[in-house]
Each structure stands twice: as C-alpha cells, then as structure tokens.
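User: I'm putting together a teaching handout on how multi-component assemblies are represented. Below are the sequence lines for each component of a complex, exactly as they appear in our records. Could you produce the 3D structure of the whole assembly as structure tokens, so the students can see both representations side by side? Please keep the chain order the same as the input.
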Amino acid sequence: MRKVFQEELAQVGEQLVEISKLVSEAFEKATTAFEGADIDLAEDVIAADARIDFLQNSLDERAIDILALQGPVASDLRMIVGSLRMSASLERMGDLARHLAQLARLRYPANVIPQPLQETFKNFAKYDLEIAEKLTVLLETRDLEVARDILKANTAVNDLHLSIFKSIARSDWTESAATTVDVALASRYFERFADHGVSVAQKVTYLVTGAWHPTSIEHS
Amino acid sequence: MRKVFQEELAQVGEQLVEISKLVSEAFEKATTAFEGADIDLAEDVIAADARIDFLQNSLDERAIDILALQGPVASDLRMIVGSLRMSASLERMGDLARHLAQLARLRYPANVIPQPLQETFKNFAKYDLEIAEKLTVLLETRDLEVARDILKANTAVNDLHLSIFKSIARSDWTESAATTVDVALASRYFERFADHGVSVAQKVTYLVTGAWHPTSIEHS
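Assistant: Of course. Below is the structure of the complete assembly, with chains in the same order as your input.
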C-alpha cells in the first residue's frame, strides 16, 4: 500500500514536470511567432493549449483521488495540495502563451511590436523563457538555487515591464492607439507569465524548506 | 467526531462567504474611487486588500487541516478542494479591485477614464458588482438560478470589453497613449474580474450538480 502511494505521489510530480515542459515549449513557439509574425506557429500554440488544460485536469483528478483513497498527512498532504496550486499556475502560464500567439495571429502579417521596442520584447522573451525552463529543472531537482535564479529573472522582467510603460508615456511616442494597446497588453502578459513562474518557485521552496518566505525569495 | 467535522466544513463555507462579501465591498469602493477620482477611497481599497489575502490564507490552512485530520471523502472532499480553488479566485478578484484603485490613485486628481467612455465603464462596474454580489448569494444559498444570472452578467461584461477595444481602434480616437493604456488595462481588469466570478459560479454548480459544464453554464 505504502509503495503504491509513493508511486502515485511520484506520478503527480512527473505530470507537473510534463506540463511545465509543454508550457516552455508553447511559450518559446509563441514568442517566436510573435517576433517573426509566423501565423502557422501561432496556430500551433493556440491548438496545443488544449493539451495543457487536459493535463492539468487529469493531474487534479489524480491528486483528488489520492486525497480520497490514501488520506495523506503532513508533508505528503502539503505536496498534493501544493500540486493543485502549481498546476493552476502552469495552466495559466499556458493561457498567457496562447494570448501572445493570438495577438500574433490578430496582427499577421504585421508585427505586433513596433520596431523600436522589438529588442526589449526579445529580452522579455529571453527572461520569461529562462523562467519557464528553470521551472522544469526546479520541479525535477528541487534545487533551491534554481528558485533563486527564477526570482532574479523575474526582477529583470519587472524592470522591462516598467520600461515599456515609460516608453509609451514619453512625449515622442507616436504609435497608433491599437499598437499602443497591443504593446501594453503584451507587456502585461510577459509580466504575468513571470509572476506565475515565481508562484510555482515559491511553492516548491515552501515544500522543500517548510518556510513560506525565505529571505532569498521575496514576494513579488 | 462527525458533528465537529460538519461544523468545520460549515466554517469553511462561511469563510468563503465572508471573503466574497469583502470582495464586493472592495470592488464597489474601487469603482466609486475610479469613477469619482476619490483618492481616500482608493487608499482604503488598497489597504483593505491585505485582509482578503489574510482570510484566504487562513481558509486554506483550515481546509488543509481538515484534509489532514478528517480525511474527508466523496462530496466533502470535493467541497474542500473546491474551496481552495474558490478562495484563490476570490483573492484574485480582490487583487483586481486593488488594481483599479491603484489606477485611480495614479491618475488622481484626474479621472482615469476619458469622458466619452465613462458611461460604458459605469455599466462595466454595474455588471461586475452584480456578479460579485450574486456570488455571495450563490455561496450562501447554492441556488443555481443565481449562477445563471452571473453567466448572463458576464456576457454583458464581455460585450462591453469588446466595445471598449473597438472604440480605441476607431479612427476618431484621439486620447494620449497613457490614457489609451489605462483604458485598455482597466477594461481588462473588469473583464478578468467577471471571469473569476464565473469560475467560482461554475465550481459551485459543479459541487451542487456533479456536472462540470451543465448546458446552462458555458465555459467562457
């Protein structure tokens, strides 16, 4: 019985890793589509999001079954409840990748982002992708050094988000209203994506250390 | 033992209702501050959000204790896990009310929304407040008629969100970039607020009927 239970717990962990990998993949494709105005890639991301939603539901069902059948306590219970939360954050990250792909599709064949800001958005994508990829590593290894890297990348994302909003507010900003809205929303999607990544990293840290806010992990 | 357990379950339900009431209150104040450029009211909402976060955490701790100590199964288990999800949605609705108050504070003493769109945003606020208030009723009574009202109000919110984005895209839109971004973000906050309300309504419906997507509750 105990052995079955441990296997079931391990499967929940593996499914989190699987979802996290799909989120990375979706996000990388979405930002590539976004940067290069590639409609096929955008369509791919939009279609693939259903798979992430499906996996989240199946993980949640499995977690609830474990709660019902095994009645886990202490750290096992925390891990199961934590998994429900982490899967919700990962699913939301998948949604945000889809939102970016939808923006790319909406503006195709034009680029969503005007030329002067494209470099900034490439940086955004770089840090967000780093967060997504390190999240998979963190879920696999539970190495808290990786959680700290995620926090650092999130700080960079927040700085970029701020710089975008400053650019829009400057007197020499001459883009159309539609472009302005696209830029603002896209910036917010990148920022929210990182934020959800931080939530997952904090949850893993909590599960490993039992401390909700270790000094190295600040609340964003 | 059984009696204690039922009392604990009831307390979780009551705490959800309490959080829901605070969210309604925060949202009503936030939109009043937002419409009337009232900075004191905006500060109130921003300060009060910590209370909602605190109550969410305390509800979650209580739910996890019940899982650990009582090992609930079947519908009780679903109710506890559902409560964890609903509290997360309600907490997020509180955050969105705070975002609106923060926008009001940022632009004070000016209005966030330019005059021609103020009426539309009043309608937004009306439907969102209806959703927030009916959510409390739904959590108290589990009357699915109320869930249907919430869905209807959400459709109205989505239509308003679309109409705002159409206004911005029109050739006669002459607002500054900063105002354009404020309008777009505010519109998104109102839309997300309703969306989270729908999530909670769907969760209650699921707990009552066991069916995740009854024909009258469409996925938004």
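A couple of points students might notice: DSSP finds six helices and no strands in chain A. Helices of chain A lie at 2-36, 39-70, 74-107, 115-141, 144-169, 177-209.
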